[in-house]
Amino acid sequence: MAGSELQARLRHPRRVTQDSASSASTGRAPRRYGLAMPVLFVRDRNGDAKPNRARRLLIGAAVLLEVAALWLRTGQLGGNVAVRCRQGHVFTTIWIPAVSVKSLRLWWWRLQYCPVGRHWSIVTPVRQSDLSEQERLSASENTDIRLP
Fold first, then answer.
1. Can you state the percent helix, strand and coil of the chain, rounding each to 5?
2. Fewer CB near the last or first residue (10 Å), C or N of the chain?
3. Is the pTM of this model over 0.70?
């Protein structure tokens, strides 16, 4: 293989060829190593990968779905939200949809440190009106670190 041809292949490793042209119409990448992967990046004229419209729509839909779920669950769009850990402790945390710095996201749930029980647990947001007066007071007194 000539040097210029090798450089061209390194710059454009996924250029559509004759045998994979049919897969371009189906929205799937050519089969490599026995797997067909959805095309989430397209290459521009310079060969640089850029996200296509489907990927942007998918990310936007996921963020909107989380915002809608948070609204239905708590009646808030985010901010200071009362959450309950798996052991039943209630505390207040900052909940921003699609953003998490101090917790590990598991779709709707988050793995986060519980300052009440001093343990790591999966937490879920709760509606303020569903809490008893004692739980509401406990949630307002117990807050985690103030990072999003």
1. 35, 30, 35
2. N
3. no
* Whole-number Å distance between alpha carbons of 94 and 63: 17
Q: How many other CB atoms are found less than 10 A from the CB of residue 122?
A: 17
Cα→Cα distances 82→14, 66, 71, 116, 119, Å: 48, 16, 13, 13, 17
- Look up residue 22 and give its amino acid: S
Digit-by-digit pLDDT tens for the chain (148 residues) are: 566 665 665 555 554 444 444 444 455 555 555 545 555 556 666 666 666 777 788 888 888 888 888 888 788 887 888 999 999 999 999 888 878 788 888 766 789 999 999 999 999 889 988 999 999 998 989 988 877 5
Q: Is residue 131 in a domain?
A: yes
Range of the structural domain that residue 129 is part of:
58-141
